[in-house]
Amino acid sequence: MKNYKLISVAHSPDADDIFMYMAVKFGWISSVNLRFSNTALDIQTLNEEALKGTYDATAISFALYPLIKDEYALLRTAVSFGNGYGPKLVKKKGVSLKRNFKVALSGAHTSNALLFRIAYPNARIVYKNFLEIESAVVSGEVDAGVLIHESILDFSSELEVEREIWDIWCEFAKEEIPLPLGGMAVRRSLPLTGAIECERVLTEAVRIATAHKPFLSHMLMERNLIRVDKEKLKTYLNLYANESSVSMDEVALNSLNKLFEIGYKHGFYPQIIDAHDYLIPKEYNEARFS
């Protein structure tokens, strides 16, 4: 009997991550030597577990990556970028925020938190599960909150957008380029051939999901794996699980480098890094087996 290497994959429970992984879960993609198990966790927990090196392959906030670069390599696939859109800073309608307003964010190492903390250095931050942020603002527990994932599409009529994180990003980047939000990383302790195969399988999963979006979306809705209705799911997947999610191109990698540069300049990282240097070297297999 063949021995397979089991790869533990962690992703968030939001629609785009589930959508991009489910082709693996449903067995639509095969691997000669790998099998996969999956765990769904909120983004703050995913980032915390990545710092511990818990999972073989894991979804992360891109802003976390420079802090785990020695333990994890970047995958090119299953990525989410905002392009003219992204997380939203919301508050109660008609309320003026003070300089030191209290705000709920979804995690210390999220990309939106990095940009928010630079833009609002005097804000008093509390961290919450992303599903609890809207209600915390509505109840008055906090003055404002940054909504992420599907929450950006539909939130309480008592709230209004104070500022788009996209606008903050463009201000710091000094140009309109895609906003890096989330991606995938793979543990460096995996044999290189295993890491390459892992990236191949996950890339194919995103490719298949994108090519069969209506069919897979219907399957996810039938299984009650999605928190939004059919129309909102379609809108959300068009934003964050699309052709650009299959594999990062040079535009995406350069945007990622801009995020790392901004974080470094503001003291969030000990050194500046180039994303190109931390990708899985896919050419290894071509050289080895040619």
Automatic annotation (TrEMBL):
A Pfam short name: VitK2_biosynth
List of catalytic residues: 149 (proton acceptor)
Protein name: 1,4-dihydroxy-6-naphtoate synthase
A Gene Ontology molecular function term of the record: carbon-carbon lyase activity
Its biological purpose: Catalyzes the conversion of cyclic dehypoxanthine futalosine (cyclic DHFL) into 1,4-dihydroxy-6-naphthoate, a step in the biosynthesis of menaquinone (MK, vitamin K2).
Enzyme category, top tier: lyase
HAMAP family in UniProt: MqnD (MF_00996)
